[in-house]
Amino acid sequence: YVQSACEKKRNIREARVEALRAGFKQCYIDKDFQTIVTVGDKIPQNLLTEDEVLLQFYDIAQNKL
């Protein structure tokens, strides 16, 4: 997902919530907040807003930047 998110014109259309949670958690542990925000901006907003865990990681990462 990170590689897809780094391509400027492409959005991620379909993503697995479990994979995003695991990735966001690892990025949070590594203090890689920029990656969380970059991927969060590219995934469908309904995935982000409907999942509390993803939204919490995303909000914290935005505040840390």
Q: Which key terms come to mind for this protein?
A:
65 residues; 72% helix; globular; 0% strand; 5 helices
- Specify Rg, calculated over alpha carbons: 11 Å
Helix content: over 70%
Mean pLDDT: 89
Order of helices and strands: HHHHH
Q: Please provide the count of β strands.
A: 0
Number of helices: 5
**Largest sheet geometry:** none
**Content-based structural category:** mainly alpha
Tell me the distance between the termini. Answer: 20 Å
Residue stretches low in confidence (pLDDT < 50, at least 5 long) are none
Strand content: under 5%
Overall geometry: globular
Account of the 3D structure:
This protein is an all-alpha fold. It is built from 5 helices and no strands. It has helices spanning 2-6, 17-29, 33-42, 45-50, 52-64. Helix 2 (17-29) packs parallel to helix 5 and helix 3 (33-42) packs across helix 5 (52-64). It is globular. The model has no long low-confidence stretch (mean pLDDT 89).
Summarize the structure.
With 65 residues, the protein is an all-alpha fold. The protein has five helices and no strands.
